[in-house]
Amino acid sequence: MRAHKEITIYDIAEALNLSPATISRGLKDHPAIRKDTRKRIVEKARELGYQHNSFASSLRRNKTNTIGVIVPRLNSYFMSTIIAGMERVANNAGYNLIISQSMESLKKEIANVNTLFNSRVDGLLASLGYETEDIAHFESLINKGIPLIFFDRVFEHPKCTNIIIDNYKAGYEVTSHLIGQGCKRIVHISASQKRNVYADRLRGYKHALSDHGIAYDESLVFVNNLSDQAGVEVSSAILKMDPLPDGIFSSNDACAVSCIRELKQAGIKIPQEIAVAGFNDDPLSKVIEPNLTSVRYPGEEMGEMAASTLIRRLDRLEGVNLNTIVLKHNLIIRESSKRTDS
Amino acid sequence: MRAHKEITIYDIAEALNLSPATISRGLKDHPAIRKDTRKRIVEKARELGYQHNSFASSLRRNKTNTIGVIVPRLNSYFMSTIIAGMERVANNAGYNLIISQSMESLKKEIANVNTLFNSRVDGLLASLGYETEDIAHFESLINKGIPLIFFDRVFEHPKCTNIIIDNYKAGYEVTSHLIGQGCKRIVHISASQKRNVYADRLRGYKHALSDHGIAYDESLVFVNNLSDQAGVEVSSAILKMDPLPDGIFSSNDACAVSCIRELKQAGIKIPQEIAVAGFNDDPLSKVIEPNLTSVRYPGEEMGEMAASTLIRRLDRLEGVNLNTIVLKHNLIIRESSKRTDS
DNA sequence: CTGTTAGCGCTTTCAT
DNA sequence: ATGAAAGCGCTAACAG
């Protein structure tokens, strides 16, 4: 199919009566090439329609200029934003991204790691799925010296950099805010406690409660997958409680929004009877009525930071080599948690 | 960095006293290899921690097992769904996806095509940005015989397959539905007429009007980028109209939702005074109040279809080779367009 | 500043 | 059923 012969540096060399080595150098920015020869080379290359063959180059240099990305799911605003940030940085630095989704499944995550490993990515950016307990499946990469950077859903490892926000603090802030609005019985909706993001927010929630003299009540904490459906189920459980809780802190917006819809339908006034807060500042939060209080996640920045940290390491520009980079988040207070009497 | 030597088929060959050629064959499913030797080979490979080197293989076979994907933006539910579909099919068939975003910019789209071309993708899946007028920047690929498939935002080309829904029909249906609800002055919000999806929906809108004896009024059609902000602007223009329109058909949900918010805020009753419909069936449509009438797009299926069509062509399984594949959409009627009196 | 040379690891005729 | 050998296109010593 691929039509006829590819133009190689040998063709250019022949046409210009130079050696392939010179062509190779001229096509990069090798210092030891005269300016005018470089120009002749580049011109002839364009004239012949030359295309750099990155496989030959990869094979030779043992470097692919490819970065692997593993995420639980692509289909959230939050994640798309992160990827967009990564893509920009990576492309500017001459890297391609290979993106794969684990769908929150450990099995798929392992398969993805292996695929990326086999395609010899130069480095890996990963955010872990719900099920992952350890990172044995990443060890072969790490042992090979392939840099691995976790973002958002991270794992402590001496060789890996983690890019996160302060989820503990965010959880603390959200909960304190709800308490400040007069809430005393606050439901928390969380997900897999294997993941730092959820465990940390829960810790923040607990500390905020105790710092404000509110007893922790385990029956107010729900752990699920934070889907719409989960919101429906939590809401139905909430409606059976007596007394009713007066606040909800959900670890994502989709689930918070789903709760608001269900509770409103059941005749509960939001925020007067139950105040609600979510997480991630998804566009949804500005559509639901009342608008949802949430935590703004610096997605773009997180993606950029992850990619640039990785690339710095790949290019041996070293720079600062922190084990953990914490980005700033923002609590965005909207109507869903503003009590009129406060 | 990459620690020490890689294991190659030569290492396996040596350990087993076989030739590299036999190892190479044994690692695939070459028929001319004895079952037990194949088994020995596979075992030894695992034992030594052998990893297939796809660059050497790509170089030799002139095939990369990589598919390039170009989309305008990744950050919509719709697009994530499409990508998820592609990914599944591609991975199952042993292909990797390289995804890039044009951000609706022609310049970026051209750059992306070139990058993917240079990384020697075996085939390309593309959805065009707003600005693109022709596909000259794809010609070099096409001429090289690299299969190119457009999805959603497509372009007619004898060598390319297009995967779409019937946007004309969808536009016609939405408009007819609004008319059926008693609307007579229907605003249509559209985007770049260079893109089939928008031009076709507009055509559908016009034909529905004329089929129902309603005169087409150019001042009711807005062309913008369908963003939240665009919705704000359109709404403000609408509020200045006299008489007020009684229906809005927006070419995406984000903009429709933005309009609903603005109009509600201005005291307009939705759907009684103005009925609204969107497009894509984004999760947003089930959150806005009233819930938004929209057109369900078979995203997952579109992604799967695009990828499998491409792969079939790559693997010369040929199969049916249609120039256009039309998937089924569904009009989902929700409260935003249901007139109580109908 | 430019050329020579020797592979990177794999696949694939063509032999045997 | 297996082996020998050539070469995909590029790069990096090393030499000049």
Question: Can you offer a commentary on this structure?
Answer:
The structure is a homodimer of 342-residue chains. Chain A is elongated, with a radius of gyration of 26 Å. With 342 residues, chain A is an alpha/beta fold. The mean pLDDT of chain A is 92. Chain A folds into 3 domains: 9-52, 434 Repressor (Amino-terminal Domain) (Orthogonal Bundle); 64-165 and 299-329, Response regulator (Rossmann fold); 167-296, Response regulator (Rossmann fold). In chain A, helix 2 (20-27) crosses helix 3 and helix 8 (167-180) runs parallel beside helix 9 (196-211). A 6-stranded parallel beta sheet of chain A has the order 2-1-3-4-5-11, sandwiched between helices. Chain A has a 4-stranded parallel beta sheet with strand order 7-6-8-9. Chain A has helices at 9-16, 20-27, 35-48, 54-61, 77-92, 106-118, 136-143, 167-180, 196-211, 228-239, 253-265, 299-314, and strands at 66-71, 96-101, 123-126, 148-151, 161-165, 186-190, 221-223, 247-250, 275-277, 294-296, 324-327, 330-332. Chain A starts with 8 loop residues before the first helix and ends in a 10-residue tail after the last strand. Helix content of chain A is 43%, strand content 15%. Chain A contains 12 helices and 12 strands. Chains A and B meet through helix 4, helix 5, strand 2, helix 6 and helix 11 of A and helix 4, helix 5, strand 2, helix 6 and helix 11 of B.
